[in-house]
Amino acid sequence: MLRIKNLNAYYGDVQVLYDVNVEVNDGEIVTILGSNGAGKTSLMKTICGIETRRKGVIEFNGENLINLPAHKLITRGITLTPEGRHLFPELTVRENLLLGAYAINKKINDTYEKVLEMFPRLKERLSQFAGTMSGGEQQMCAIGRALMSNPTFLMLDEPSLGLAPNIVEQVFDIIKKINKENGITVMVVEQNANIALQTADRAYALENGEIKMSGDAKDMLRSPDIQKLYLGL
Ligand SMILES: Nc1ncnc2c1ncn2[C@@H]1O[C@H](COP(=O)(O)OP(=O)(O)OP(=O)(O)O)[C@@H](O)[C@H]1O
Ligand SMILES: [Mg+2]
What we know:
Blueprint: E1 2-11, E2 14-24, E3 29-33, H1 40-48, E4 53-60, E5 63-64, E6 78-81, H2 93-99, H3 109-118, H4 120-123, H5 135-147, E7 153-157, H6 165-182, E8 185-190, H7 193-199, E9 202-207, E10 210-216, H8 217-222, H9 224-230
The structure holds adenosine-5'-triphosphate (ATP) and magnesium ion.
């Protein structure tokens, strides 16, 4: 579905990604691991055409997206839940969700109902200001908002950030459900290697802007290098 070939990216003259090669097959959950500053967010932004200058190939369903502006991505079925969630804190949950469909010229009632079914917690809180919700609820709202555009490819940047372990599990259960029951392909960037590798089919490890390792997620979970670097074992 997604084939990234020799992707290089720059902030001004400073290079941040070096010949990155990543593939995501239809129906997979793929995780990109990496420590602070590894370039995970930069990779997400670069795929989306935000902020960085980029060179290489970003092929999605056979189309090279390298010259496609960010606001067009949603029309190709790609959506991003950014690091830090970026909800509108002074808008309600309902308004935040509806904004996820803002750029889509379609009837959204069915999608809205489906999203609320998936997140009963949000359904109870539609009139609450997003900024007053707990971190876990805000992450659910951010994912729900992303789903409002009916994507086929969902990108998530550190959904576990700042959440308690049991909430992290809930968030990843939902990610699995989105993948298995709704057939949405997922690319998730994480520092929490443990839960990410348990959830994903395949994984890549990014360090200093380069892919250093890749493979089956369960194999990576058992790899001594991964255990030492990311699992603190
Ligand atoms: N807008 C920017 N301008 C210049 N440099 C940037 C910019 N954003 C990020 N960088 C640099 O790019 C490198 C990678 O940062 P990035 O945010 O992609 O890392 P990350 O893996 O997402 O880290 P974290 O786990 O902390 O979120 C860092 O050295 C960072 O300082
Ligand atoms: Mg980041």
